[in-house]
Amino acid sequence: MSEIRIAIAGIGNCASSLIQGLNYYSEKKEHVIGLMHYSICGYEPKDIKVVAAFDIDKRKVGKPLKEAIFSPPNCTKVFYDRIKDGDVIVSMAPVLDGVSPHMKDYPEERTFVVSDEASCDVERVLKESGAEILLNYLPVGSEKATRFYAECCLNTGVSFINCIPVFIASDNEWANKFREKNIPIIGDDVKSQIGATIIHRTLARLFTERGVKIDRTYQLNTGGNTDFLNMLNRDRLISKKISKTESVQSMLDVPLSPENIHIGPSDYVPWQKDNKVCFMRIEGRIFGDVPMNLELRLSVEDSPNSAGCIIDAIRCCRVARDRGIGGVLESISAYTMKHPIKQIPDDIAKIMVEEFIKGKRER
After folding, report:
1. What count of other Cβ atoms lies within 10 Å of the Cβ of residue 288?
2. pTM listed for this prediction
3. Residues 335, 341, 343, 345: what is their CA dihedral angle, to the nearest 10 degrees?
4. Structural domain range at position 19
5. For the domain that residue 113 is a member of, what is the CATH number?
6. Does a structural domain hold residue 363?
7. CB 78 within 8 A of CB 20
């Protein structure tokens, strides 16, 4: 198969885990653990090549990608460090609203340190690199910056996979722009392979299907990566809370009132690094109107958890390009994203993805 040439905006922990994984799985052929699909229409992990990279941190800009992904403030688990084809130089991106002002109040090893270099011409880099797909891994709350990259994709014919909770693929105006130019787009806000949202959705649907009335629920998360530090600025969390809450509410026959559901990041605990801990509680009533409750604690390395979904999204996006399909890819968006243009139960979304892989055209 030919290469899938991708660009990445934001060389943080998620990018690090993805790139480590691409190299890790390129050398594994048997007894593969951790992938939903080893091959999608003939595309394997080894076929994905990063040809352009953008960041704003002085410890990453100007460095080869294989060094930048291990540079501070990245703190995710290093599970594979033999990076091949990692000589792409990280370009300086426009900062726009990518860095929250409060980040400057924290130690350099834990926060962003903005480079003094002039920003590059992103569209020119995309064209010259031959990138086909751009992954948006910017910090939560980067509304202007995300729209900037989306426009760059529209102007260059590059597909957009929006991994953060800024509503592009799930916004009809933006969706129409990509459809009119016949450019595939996937989004918004990536789910984890086995994360807080997918578990919460699954349990909410299970309760509903088993006749249990859910009265109230919460999901509290802590972590020590730059994502959690960035989200201490609550003004940047509006879209994030909407994304996570709607994802769970969509599994209920009757949505809970706002005072009975709380879903969203809770606090920053530096020593947790990239480990995310979720505390979840669901209160409800079973047969005879008898009360019951469930409490759950999940601990997982956050960034590899994300990469487990994105590696499939990338390949499905390339398949769509091969088939001349543009606009929002509903099936893979519903399966891998918290806030797709259409919320679909995960088991049904999985069937839709399998049908798409087999050749069924997206609506």
Report:
1. 5
2. 0.96
3. -20
4. 4-191+304-358
5. 3.40.50.720
6. no
7. yes
